[in-house]
TrEMBL record:
SUPFAM superfamilies: Clavaminate synthase-like. Pfam families: 2OG-FeII_Oxy (PF03171), DIOX_N (PF14226). Transmembrane segments: none annotated. This is Fe2OG dioxygenase domain-containing protein. Residues 188-289 form the Fe2OG dioxygenase domain. Keywords: Iron, Metal-binding, Oxidoreductase. The keyword DNA-binding does not apply. PANTHER family: OXIDOREDUCTASE, 2OG-FE II OXYGENASE FAMILY PROTEIN (PTHR10209), PROTEIN DMR6-LIKE OXYGENASE 2-LIKE (PTHR10209:SF744). One of its GO terms (molecular function) is metal ion binding.
Length: 344
């Protein structure tokens, strides 16, 4: 294997082992058109407690819109590197095209394109608490694809709406008011991502995305029929595939919900394995709060018997640290929520 690939090689413990297949219950599938809200909330609560992952069907996002997103994403990633590099993401503006993301210091075998739901929002320029500087985040669009922007904006608008519905149901499942967290999203920095995983000549050594937990509130993802997304399930001792279901969205809880729930729910670890023959596309929407929000366990879930398990942290500063770490991954992994854990 030449040096040009060495950045992609996972350490032995993280290499996917294709020979072990874990036979377990399937990740729950939840029908959002179910008329009894009580049943729906109960099913979602169980899925969150057991997996932190579920799939939703009958979610109200039109199928033809998803097909348009798929077509535009394919056209985008087929553009020449020169065209894509015109939209390259940098440390100050974390939107646009990127092909060098690292998860836990190892390069992911993928290309991404990111755009914000709210164009022009400001986030802290650094994680230094004394630095009051802000940087404005602006979306970049490929000029050579005339319908791209309109389709992507429509998609992210629909996913934002679906995320609020899921937020409400998950909040109710924790015994909280359905709108408990809604105010956190006024200046949200939610992001839609297009992921392209090219076929990989050494799928047993590299990963499309290394093992990680999402730093957001929740993620809603469309995946194509290639498969590759897997969830870590310690109880069964391995990685469980999230089977592609045509037209379904995969939903997973992020770190913020883990903190809000005071560890009642877990932000599950997941990864993407590669395929030597087939490319893969996926389109996640990451629901993030505004940068001013202090993330801490919901007071309704904290008591003398069940004290807060996390110290409050400022989301904007946390996000700035993670974004910065993305560009300096070789030395710094960035903060994770366990850094705010209150140890007993
Ligand atoms: O490609 C996928 O299915 C999920 C990717 C993912 O986990 C992420 O981008 O955070
Ligand atoms: Fe993820």
């Amino acid at each position: 294997m030449g040096d040009m690939y060495s950045a992609y090689i996972q350490s032995t413990e993280h290499r996917p082992n294709f020979s072990t297949f874990v036979e377990v219950d399937e990740i729950p599938i939840i029908d959002l058109s179910e008329t009894s809200q009580e049943n729906l909330v109960s099913k979602i609560g169980k899925a969150c407690e057991k997996w932190g992952f579920f799939q939703v069907i009958n979610h109200g996002v039109p199928k033809d819109l998803i097909i348009k997103v798929e077509n535009e994403a394919k056209k985008f990633f087929e553009l020449s590197m020169e065209e894509k590099m015109k939209l390259k993401r940098d440390v100050f503006n974390a939107t646009g095209y990127y092909d060098a993301e690292h998860t836990k210091k190892t390069r992911d075998w993928k290309e991404v394109f990111d755009f914000l739901v709210k164009d022009g929002i400001q986030i802290p320029s650094s994680d230094d608490p004394h630095d009051l500087g802000l940087c404005t985040q602006t979306n970049h669009w490929p000029q050579c694809l005339p319908h791209f922007r309109e389709i992507m904006e429509e998609y992210s608008g629909k996913l934002e709406k679906l995320s609020y519905k899921l937020l409400e149901l998950i909040s109710l499942s924790l015994g909280l008011a359905g709108d408990k967290f809604l105010d956190c999203f006024k200046n949200q920095i939610s992001l839609t991502r297009l992921n392209y995983y090219p076929p990989c000549p050494f799928p047993d050594l590299a990963l499309g995305v290394g093992p990680h937990r999402d730093p957001c509130v929740l993620s809603v993802v469309v995946q194509d029929d290639t498969g590759g997304l897997q969830v870590k399930k310690n109880l069964v001792g391995g990685w469980v595939p999230v089977r592609p279901i045509p037209g379904a969205f995969v939903v997973n809880l992020g770190d913020i919900f883990q903190v809000w729930s005071n560890d009642k729910y877990e932000s599950a670890e997941h990864r993407v394995v590669l395929n030597s023959q087939k490319e893969r596309f996926s389109y996640p929407f990451f629901l993030f709060p505004g940068p001013h929000i202090m993330v801490k366990p919901a007071e309704e879930l904290v008591s003398e018997k069940d004290p807060a398990k996390y110290k409050a942290y400022n989301f904007g500063k946390y996000y700035a640290n993670r974004t910065h770490a993305d560009f300096t991954k070789q030395e710094d992994e960035g903060k994770e929520i366990h850094n705010f854990k209150i140890l007993d």
